[in-house]
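User: Here's a structure from my thesis project, written as structure tokens. My advisor, Dr. K., wants to see whether a designed sequence matches the one we expressed. Can you design one independently, without my sequence as a hint?
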């Protein structure tokens, strides 16, 4: 907590974020109210942070307009910190769900000397700088799907998760940008709108076929 951080700073153990990952058990045991088990827990938590996925790290930088979702969207396209730092505002804004405001914030952040120094110090401390996607495939990449009605085997949440796991975007409403509408029984206004806009309507079985 804050009291522990204050003690670490006062004792000269920590000057920046990266110093946290170089702490030793001996240093921690010199702090008030930190016993053997507490020191082990702190070190285990820090090691877990070092190994976390790049999108979590990117989100932790506190970049203006960049939250957890935006960080993940960026890392799905640029899977290393070098790739993220090397991307232009135009390239970042082309990512579905990002746009020019977020892209500009990311570029401006990494242009600062402070950010570059932070990256180098975190790298030296052994912090993971790569992204491993949780997606199963990219078969639906670039496609937006909307699920409506009751599907034979999948709940709506399960269907949306399946779409996203295969690189697609699961949307809640139908528009001209919708690639497919996955329709089950008792599909309502979304199915009607899809037909009006000429959006292809597929079944759950056809969705499975697209992924196999």
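Assistant: Designed independently from the structure alone:
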């Amino acid at each position: 907590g804050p009291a522990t951080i204050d003690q670490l700073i006062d004792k000269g153990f920590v000057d920046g974020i990266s110093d946290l990952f170089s702490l030793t058990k001996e240093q921690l045991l010199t702090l008030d109210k930190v016993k053997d088990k507490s020191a082990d827990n702190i070190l285990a938590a820090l090691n877990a942070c070092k190994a976390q996925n790049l999108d979590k790290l990117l989100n932790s930088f506190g970049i203006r307009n960049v939250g957890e979702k935006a960080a993940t969207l960026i890392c799905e396209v640029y899977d290393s910190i070098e790739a993220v730092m090397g991307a232009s505002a135009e390239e970042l804004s082309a990512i579905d769900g990002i746009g020019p405001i977020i892209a500009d914030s990311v570029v401006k952040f990494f242009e600062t000397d402070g950010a570059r120094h932070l990256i180098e110090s975190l790298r030296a401390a052994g912090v993971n700088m790569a992204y491993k996607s949780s997606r199963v495939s990219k078969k639906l990449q670039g496609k937006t799907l909307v699920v409506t009605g009751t599907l034979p085997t999948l709940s709506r949440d399960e269907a949306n998760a399946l779409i996203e796991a295969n690189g697609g975007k699961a949307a809640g409403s139908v528009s001209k940008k919708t690639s497919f509408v996955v329709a089950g029984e008792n599909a309502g206004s979304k199915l009607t709108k899809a037909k009006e806009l000429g959006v292809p309507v597929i079944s759950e079985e056809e969705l499975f076929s697209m992924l196999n």
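When you compare it with your expressed construct, this may help: The longest helix spans residues 36-51.
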